[in-house]
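Board notes (copied after class):
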Amino acid sequence: MIVGSHKSPLDDIIRDFKSFTSYELKSAITFNETESRKEWMLPIFIEAGRRNFNNVKWQFWQQNNHPIVLDTNESFDNTLNYILMNPVEAGFVSGAQYYPFSSAIDYSGGKGLLDVIVVD
């Protein structure tokens, strides 16, 4: 994820992102009767939560963050390309723009699922 803000500290943005997505994913996994992977996913998240004293029952995200300052066009372009190519490298899609949960389609002239600010 590449994120920045002039209003909120980056730590607050990441904390809120992790909190919101963890809650939503837990709900989606737990309460979806057709989710076939929950039988093996839930014990992993529960065990991770037990090992971390900051959690009560559940952990989805790692506790630490490794932010990288993207202070040059080259570092930004390299990081963006790395992120966009992950689904291709994993074999999920043949082209980055075909992965529905990516902003790659926005960078190729289309419109993805989320509002994206395309950086030139």
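Comment from the instructor: The chain has two domains: 10-51, 68-120. The chain has a mean pLDDT of 88.
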